Amino acid sequence: MNLSVYCFRYMVAGRDLIAGSIILAELPLVVGPCNGSKVQCLGCYQTLDETYLYSKCNCGWPICSSTCPGIGHAFGHTEEECAILKDSKSSQNFDYKDFDNFKENYNAVAPLRCLLLKEMDSKKYEKILSMENHNEIRRNIPELWNLNQTTVVDKIRKDWGLVEFSEDEIHSVCGILEVNCFEVGHNISIRGLYPSAFLMSHDCVPNTNHSDEENNFKLTVRASMDIHTNQPITLSYAYTLQGTLRRREHLLENKFFECRCKRCSDPAELGTYTSALICPKCNIGLVLSINPLDNDSSWTCNNKCTKPDKKCPGYTVTAKSMQLLISRIQSEIDSIDPNDVETMEKFLDKYRNVLHPTHFLCLGVKLSLSQLYGKITGYLLHELPDDLLYRKMEICREILKIFDTVEPGLTKIRGVTLYELHAPLMILTSRQFETQSISKSILKHRLKEVVKYLEEAGLILSYEPDNSSEGIMGKAAKDALLKIKDWGKIIGRI
Ligand SMILES: [Zn+2]
Ligand SMILES: [Zn+2]
Ligand SMILES: [Zn+2]
Ligand SMILES: [Zn+2]
Q1: Fewest beta carbons within 10 Å, which of 360, 362, 425, 492?
Q2: How far is the CA of 90 from the centre of ligand 2 (A)?
Q3: Domain coverage including residue 437
Q4: Do both 189 and 200 map to the same domain?
């Protein structure tokens, strides 16, 4: 693979932007199912299966119902698309008893929607064609290129007979979608191309946060921290809670570039140690990659202490062994039921002396625990004993420290975790107040802390759509804030 190609997309702040300010808010050029989607309604993208009481559109494709609001909608199943899919007999081999067989047709829907703009809205089509397609790199990845050839290019040209679109044209559109798409929709997998959001460059510590509206996929990008004039405006195409090796692998495979950002270049990942192991030889040092920008680099203990009792006899592992170890531990995590608090705690205990407490594998488990304590049966907030309330607080604080570095500022993940943190603190405080085991001044101090968490969570989550789980949490944060302020008034000014 040609590794010398990097992203040239670039967006900088034209003026100083304060955290929370809107950088852009725009409707998509195109939306459609993600690659590998299940059979879904072409209007509203609801997943359909053999057991679902679905309807059939004029074109023969399954839809959720004839009254689906997405039928005839610009970002759903348009009349033009319906007519073309009907004329091309695209659904003639659809066996309504075998949805799996029809699944691969959905890979071609978003590319077709781009191609239809050529006739219907040439300005939008030109805009799409101006985006990077990385064809030279993608052509050399047979797995990817061949999948597009069979499930998109041949589908559109051979099966549906739409030969007015050339092979090159279709491959380019596939590339443009892969490189520039945003995943949108809540609990459903939809991708969308936007007229200017694609210009934001990637950084593993992004300075923006974005959300999309459910009904029209309007994307709103906000500054998550203060951004100065001429500073790049960035987002992360990789999951920020992954370690460097994983993030870089994802970016290379899916976005076709090698990230060399500050975080990727630093073995300690900006002091978060999200890829660090505890040295098995000295139990003091941390095992870090010698060169994180080289995936084949060995990992070694960073303990440089020369005192005989603390000195490390030396420990180095190859990249391959490290990857094997990580994927073995990862599969152990994957086998844990997502609501099984006890097994998650056992996992953390088991790897206490192996993984750094903020290693990304631990972080994922801790993020789950931060939300499960207080939420699931047997662990509802008011039933939690004091020690588990303290545990929830401890976990929230620990992960927040990492988020402060890798997703700093007004970001969704911080908003949610601040909300999770306020709850145990509030309950402990009221329990202690009822038993008169805290002084009035400690009480005031605690309430101030709760107010601080809720104010920030309420602000961050107010950016999310009202009906999303985060939006609902934001509303709850604001309600809780009012109650506490009332309570505060009763016990004296806080
Ligand atoms: Zn529908
Ligand atoms: Zn139709
Ligand atoms: Zn990076
Ligand atoms: Zn060591």
Answers
A1: 492
A2: 10
A3: 373-491
A4: no
Beta bridge partners of 17: 227
Task: Report how far ligand 1's centroid is from the alpha carbon of 68 (Å).
Answer: 4
Q: How far apart are CA 336 and CA 369, in angstroms?
A: 12
Band of residue 440 on the pLDDT scale cut at 50, 70, 90: confident
Please indicate, yes or no, whether residues 126 and 203 belong to a single structural domain of this protein: no
CA of 468 to the centre of ligand 2 (A): 29
> Rounded to the nearest whole angstrom, what is the distance from the C-alpha of residue 269 to the centroid of ligand 3?
9
Q: Is residue 241 part of a domain?
A: no
Helix and strand element counts for the chain (H, E)? 17, 14
Cα separation, 280 vs 354, in Å, equals 7
What local confidence, expressed as pLDDT, does residue 95 receive?
Answer: 74
Ligand nearest, relative to CA of residue 57: 2
| CB-CB contact of 218 with 29 (8 Å) | no
Is residue 321 within 8 Å of 245, Cβ to Cβ? no
Helical spans, DSSP H, in 280-385:
319-334, 341-350, 360-372
Q: What percent of the chain has pLDDT over 90?
A: 84
Mean pLDDT rounded to a whole number for the chain: 93
Q: Are residues 96 and 150 in the same domain?
A: yes
Give the domain-ending residue among 236, 256, 290. Answer: 236
Q: How far apart are alpha carbons 213 and 229 in whole angstroms?
A: 28
C-alpha span between 135 and 261 (Å, rounded): 24
Give residue-wise pLDDT tens across range 247-297.
999 999 999 999 999 999 999 999 999 999 999 999 999 999 999 999 999
Distance 378 CA to ligand 2 centre (A): 47
- Residues 200, 72 share a domain: no
In the predicted model, what is the mean pLDDT of residues 395-413? 98
Q: Which SS3 state, helix, strand or coil, does residue 288 take?
A: strand
Q: Is 209 helix (H, G, I), strand (E, B) or coil?
A: strand
| Beta-strand pair 316-317/299-301 | antiparallel
Tokens of 476: 């709850």
What pLDDT shows up at residue 239? 95
Cα 227-229-232 angle, rounded to 5 deg = 65
Q: Is residue 97 part of a domain?
A: yes
Q: Are residues 63 and 187 both part of a single domain?
A: yes
Q: How far is the CA of 61 from the centre of ligand 1 (A)?
A: 11
What's the pLDDT at 189?
A: 81
CA–CA dist 153, 140 (Å, integer): 17
Report which DSSP code applies to 316.
Answer: E
One-letter amino acid at 205 equals V
